[in-house]
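Pair request: fold both.
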Amino acid sequence: PEKDFRKYKLISKRYRIIKKIASGGMADIFLGDDLKLNRKVAVKILSANYAGDRNFVARFKSEAQILARLSHPNIVQVYDWGEFNGSYFICMEYVEGESLKEIIEKRGPLPPETIADYAIQISSALLTAHKNNLIHRDIKPQNILVTPEEKVKVTDFGIAKSLTTDVTKTLNIMGTAHYISPEQAKGEVLDYRTDIYSLGIVLYEMLTADVPFRGSNSIDISLKHINEKPLKPSELMENIPEKLEDIIMHCMEKNPLARYPTVRELIGDLQKYETDKPLSFSAKEQNLNRTGVFIKKIRPHLASTIMAAFMVVFMVLFIFYSYKYYNDKTVSSALEICIA
């Protein structure tokens, strides 16, 4: 209703609010007009509950300034930020289209080629953010916009991090439990691979039209991320491309060290999943398998092998010291003769 945004009619003497287009627990988003540049913008207005926190305001200002410098075709650009009426706003690029969540709900499972295309665009956005030392921490279909031209735009970079720095185990989990990484669910220190896990969940949902874990509440779901192995998409549906499934499951490894080290490798695999080229982690697994086979082969003879190695070392040392003792004795005898 108009009364919900009447108090935000004109922000910073520049942005005229037209209508509310989205709402959340922490902020509302409005469609607005930039009166200076004569363009449509999206204006995100933060809840007054968070605007009173000095530490949060400082973090939010720093985050907004960093985000304003991020320039990438797959990232919703931040134009401006500021304070007004005791609250704070971020002015962003307005994207016409739908969220990925809405698309999945309407269409169901998406074609593999569409999934790969969207995934490459999302990964490219994350690569730029990670290069700028930003972890999104809230990758989910609701934060991914798709234009009518199939252009993907990732939004809400860093905002969730700033808003939930001190309440990660409550508010943030409540909002993103279906896409949260195991390490985030456990409250551990995060790195870029938390975004890779969450992206894996998004790819899983695009492929199956469902998330891998469901539960009665956010805690239940988070525990499943930590402890349970997800069903492979091929166990739920037919005609799942094997390589695409392997890529998704690799993103969703419980141990961050077992996932893609960076989204760059993920992009490389997505670009070749329809080719005959092996995936980046296939060669590593083959080497590990060869090592495992070798160990299995020698394990029955391990005791005798160790004993043989010990005997070889013993004989080498025995010969060395015997030779040394013989030489020392010969030299000593020669010296005695000379002295005599």
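--- second member of the pair ---
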Amino acid sequence: MMTSKNGRASFSASPSALLAVPYAHTNGETRNFDLTTSSQDTTIYTAADPSYILSQLKSSEWLQRYGLKAQKLTFDQILQQIGFKRGTVIKSNDSNNYIIERIDLPGIQSNISRNDIFLDSNLCLLECMEAKSFAFIKYPNDSRQCYCPSVILHHLEHDSNTKVRFYDCYIEDLANNQFVIPINKQQFEHYSILRIEKEKSLINQVIVGLNDEEKKFMLGTIKDRVGTGHRYSIEWCDTNESKQNDEHLFGAFTLRNKHRINDYVLAIDDDDTIYKLAKVQSISNDGKNLKVQFINLNTNNDNSLPKEASVPSMTTFVITIEYFNKIIHLLRT
């Protein structure tokens, strides 16, 4: 329900108010986030360890040496989100801030300023946008469906597409019938800077990421930004290197989620010391541990019993159904 407040658009909390939510921030105390999965593994290595020792580290040992145990992150840092997401207004937090819940991941709530909230009523068709104007547009071929700052270059003659340049200089011809959110030049510059700075901040972060060559989720460290800027060079825990998009990277910068039964997740398999796709079966009363069932990707062995395990919730990443389906396709091809 829309209201008027001090001459600016405002609204009351409503479960049907759909929004595009950017760069979420929530204030709170500093906490430690540790990707170490085994408290029994206390092997310590020093900066002077030679490369041949590092190359022989198991994943759990590698985490102890290079993991997030010593990295303290505020909730402002942890809950930063790259790109605008669709969400629902849960309640007003104060006169100018609202608690927003993600539509694709209902376990994620963020405290968002009214200035950074855009309503469904702001949407318009791409074909209605003027050339050289600015808009938030869904980034192509990304399962997160983020709305990113973009420039409308021009409408294509004798075609139902429009040529668009995103904040990272990626150019794409997009269908005129998709909805976008008009913004002004100042907003384009402001949110482009925020996104680029966030992308730069991931350098040297410890991550769990998809290694395309190995077709598995492995531990690694982000070494550098390459290409359009949201693609990174990764040094994996086996010391090999390859490149990957931020869509497939998870770590302390990933929004923490209140796990729910039947959520799809990336969970550590202690037997193989790698992350695998899984589904939440149950949650401990204190929320610290999850019972998950790992997804069998071996289509030639569908009769095998699904593997179950108890995993720590803090180091288990919730994923959307869109991302789950995308990964299933990638890993099975």
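Observation on the second member. The chain has three domains: 2-28+78-121, 123-199, 203-333.
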